[in-house]
Amino acid sequence: PEDNSYKTLSVETIGAHLGAVDAVRSRLGGNADGWSVREVGDGNLNLVFIVEGPDETVIAKQALPYVRLVGDSWPLPLYRAFYEYHALSRQAARDPGLVPEIYHFDEAQALIVMEFLSPHVILRRKLIAGEKVVDLGAILGRFCARTAFYGSELYMQSADKKADVALFAGNVAIPAITEALVFTDPYFDAEMNAHTDGLDPVVADLRGNVDLKMRVQRMMTKFASNTETMLHGDLHSGSIMATETEARIIDPEFVQYGPFGFDIGMLTANFLMAYFSQPAHRSQADLAGYQEWILSVIEATFETFQDEFRRLWRDERQGMFYPQVLFEGQGHDPMPACNALLGDIWTDAISFCGIEMHRRCLSLAHNADFEDIEDVRIRAPLEARNLTMGAELILNAESFADAQALCSLARQYN
Ligand code: ADP
Ligand code: MG
Ligand code: MG
Ligand code: MG
């Protein structure tokens, strides 16, 4: 039976609501009346409350029935909280410790109560502020490799994987956002688009390039139809929270089954946009060093992704893909097949990377790396570098041998 009890919570009502949940009340301690509550949602979609009790502090994230960035003219199903909850559970098993621990899930209220990450801050803010995170690339590369491998039939039994694909296939409205805002709208004059003054000639070039649009549509075909693994689906620097030495992943409500290379490609684009935006955020003395650090994170992410994927391939391959009977069982080295697949993943990742670099400057939902640059005469040329490099990635995805080649190209455009 359908439960229609959903009510949007507020700073005033959430204490009483959570006070009635034993697991949450005992964790926070004291009385709900005495808890302090703040709403801190800075994302595009949901309410996020910090609820602080005498013993502990938790995060309560509630889906709204519409897109927060736009308002109730754009309805969005509450069921995305259900998928976010299940994505968090799977990610916690596949890379323990990387996602917030879940304390309580209430499907009817579209509400997830979880670990409060503190003193972590959103990585995008750190990149704008010029702050480094130790071993960031290794942490992110491992997360991408583990979730890619364990979420696929390299590891899962086929029946389990198919059941999970069926479960997540119910998350229709959220992928539709990506299909429109990422893969379609940037390449025509869509209603919700916006771009910085001064970019018209670059934008006209992109929209006039039919080869580019063909390739982007090919990637959307893969994104929507290929169920290689369970994706995070929204892995940008605003979905990572970090301290100087730790990084954690949040906000997987865009979860879906999709191509192996999607998450790492989107992530790489967000580092490249941080890179291109730096001249507006750093003094000349700090600029080159910090930009090189960003590129070193991209390289480390890919190196670790490959190393970890190869390790898992060697030691934990137990699903129906590339079965041992065909390789080890007949005396073959299993690694050439792994390396060939990694090559395909890399090519897809480069293409997705270029597409993400486009959409963040052209459609709805821009990123603060560029958006925080108030002077459009400074912002536009930096975004133009990013857009032009993005097109080169999409058009020549096959020609990038490795992350070093990608970073060399970034240096040329910088
Ligand atoms: P949305 O889906 O609306 O983008 P997010 O899950 O990204 O929502 O959360 C929005 C903001 O809330 C984050 O940018 C972060 O500042 C804060 N936040 C979310 N989850 C946590 C958490 N577990 N710990 C601390 N802060 C969090
Ligand atoms: Mg978010
Ligand atoms: Mg903009
Ligand atoms: Mg989100």
Automatic annotation (TrEMBL):
Superkingdom of origin organism: Bacteria
Main enzyme class: transferase
E.C. number: 2.7.1.100
GO molecular function, a single term: ATP binding
Pfam families the UniProt entry points to: APH (PF01636)
Keywords in alphabetical order: ATP-binding, Kinase, Nucleotide-binding, Transferase
Residue span, Aminoglycoside phosphotransferase domain: 37-283
GO annotation terms (biological process): methionine biosynthetic process
NCBIfam families: MTRK
Family that this chain belongs to: Belongs to the methylthioribose kinase family.
Subunit field text: Homodimer.
Entry protein name: S-methyl-5-thioribose kinase
Lineage: Bacteria, Pseudomonadati, Pseudomonadota, Alphaproteobacteria, Hyphomicrobiales
